[in-house]
Amino acid sequence: EKQGYPHFMLKEIHEQPQAIADTLLARTDPDGRIVLDELRFDGADLRSADKVYVVACGTSYHAGLVAKHAIEHWAGIGVEVEIASEFRYRDPILTPHTIVVAISQSGETTDTIAAAAHARDQRARVVAISNVVGSTLTREADAVLYTRAGPEIAVASTKAFTTQIAALGVLALFLAQERRKLFPEECRDQLARLEQLPELMEQVLEADGHLAELAERIARADYVMFIGRHNGVPIALEGALKLKEISYLHAEGFPAGEMKHGPIALIDSGGPVIAIATRGHVHSKVVSNIQEVKARGAEVTAIATEGDTAVKEHADHVVYVPEVHELLYPILTVLPLQAIAYHAAVLLGRDVDQPRNLAKTVTVE
Ligand code: M6R
């Protein structure tokens, strides 16, 4: 039930800190080593792995794009992320040393199940990341890592997304540990950083008032553009997906560096641009991209790191999130984007939990 919330989506947005804490619970042994019992792969399998493919649809695909950065950085293994409906009809180069991570909240998405089967046919090792115990995908995988988000009712996925990112973060650290790419204490430190996220998420969720005002401006727009770089790209894509699916506004996400190659032509006076501009090695690049769209008349909202006053000089509005390790920002930066989409949809009188033309679980091609 909605427990006093007007919509399941809002309830689920606010359940995210607890869902992340649950997903991270009891992932270590008494020595602080990460143990993923559900995985059933031994260290030798993981050490000999030479490639990871991630396959998924929609929001789960965006979680895969976020995880690519963590797995490559921490575990030192190349990652390709692919839309399941494309992967299943392709001839990817797969061997017993390929790990295919299939992500699906429901575990019942036809294309993701078919992509996993396609991988298994070619003897790749399949790990399912799912929120539903015993779902079809989990039964067909070699190993499973469960998110513990609890039931997600709203069609727009929120807590499933952030718990997938958290679970994939643990998987990345587990791979790093087994492949000896990080020292045990580095793994422990990074896991401890993940464990601090629920508290920081609470802080971001509490600052919601300002976002309702921002959403009013967004709801009046014909077109909303989201930009980011590095692991801000999947958050830009996710922000746009959330907004389009529940408010029906036209929204798109782009890697900010691609603007000059076409999308900047869309910028018009007063058109809203939401930029993921948190601290990290690409921060100054995003700030330049903000200046470029500003110069062409865009009204820019930046999602930035607390204390970053410089960004204020360039953006019209700034939404702050607490400072974290660069690889962990997506779990925080997506929160205001979920809230903006939610408020815009409510203002426009949309059916937030049951948007038109969409089903919660896509069991057809
Ligand atoms: O259950 P799954 O994770 O496999 O679902 C995948 C997509 O259908 C899902 O994420 C969809 O994009 C959501 N409606 C997005 O909010």
Automatic annotation (TrEMBL):
Domain of life: Bacteria
Catalytic site positions: K360
Predominant cellular place of this UniProt entry's protein: cytoplasm
GO cellular component: cytosol
BP term (GO), one: fructose 6-phosphate metabolic process
UniProt keyword annotations, A-Z: Aminotransferase, Cytoplasm, Glutamine amidotransferase, Repeat, Transferase
Molecular function via GO: carbohydrate derivative binding; glutamine-fructose-6-phosphate transaminase (isomerizing) activity
Keyword Cell wall biogenesis/degradation in annotation: no
Compartment annotation: Cytoplasm
Known catalytic reactions: D-fructose 6-phosphate + L-glutamine = D-glucosamine 6-phosphate + L-glutamate
Statement: the UniProt record of this protein carries the keyword Repeat: yes
Residue ranges constituting the SIS domain according to the UniProt record: 42-181, 214-355
EC number: 2.6.1.16
Top-level class of the enzyme under EC nomenclature: transferase
Assembly and binders: Homodimer.
Annotated function: Catalyzes the first step in hexosamine metabolism, converting fructose-6P into glucosamine-6P using glutamine as a nitrogen source.
This protein's name: Glutamine--fructose-6-phosphate aminotransferase [isomerizing]
Origin species: Egibacter rhizosphaerae
Designated gene of the protein: glmS
Whole-protein residues included: 249 to 613 of 613
